[in-house]
Amino acid sequence: MQQAYDGNQPGDPRKGAQAILQAIASDDPPLHLALGKDAVVAIEQAERARLAELEKWKDLSTSTDFTCRDGPQIR
After folding, report:
1. Are 36 and 19 in contact (CB under 8 A)?
2. Are 74 and 58 in contact (CB under 8 A)?
3. What is each CA distance from 8 to 20, 33, 43, 53, 65, in whole angstroms?
4. Is the distance from CB of 23 to CB of 30 less than 8 angstroms?
5. Model pTM?
6. What is the mean pLDDT of residues 11-17?
7. What's the maximum distance between 2 C-alpha atoms anywhere in the chain?
8. What are the boundaries of each domain within the chain?
9. DSSP label at 36?
10. Are 17 and 23 in contact (CB under 8 A)?
11. Which whole-number Å values give the CA distances from 11 to 6, 8, 26, in the listed order?
12. Number of C-alpha atoms within 13 angstroms, CB side, residue 1?
């Protein structure tokens, strides 16, 4: 199966290597670097789903904080 995929993958390994080198040479390199349109699309979909779930459960999640009168509170 792997041999059939070889040469047919969407990403160009040389371009990927160049992108990695460019990213690590940056003054502010990314913690994560998506390589290829397929990776970007997959990550975008996962992050949208994660944010939607966070929003859905936000009230319950934030209800667990201590109620403080004088201390700092995160809003």
Report:
1. no
2. no
3. 21, 22, 22, 35, 51
4. yes
5. 0.72
6. 95
7. 65
8. 2-62
9. S
10. no
11. 11, 9, 22
12. 0
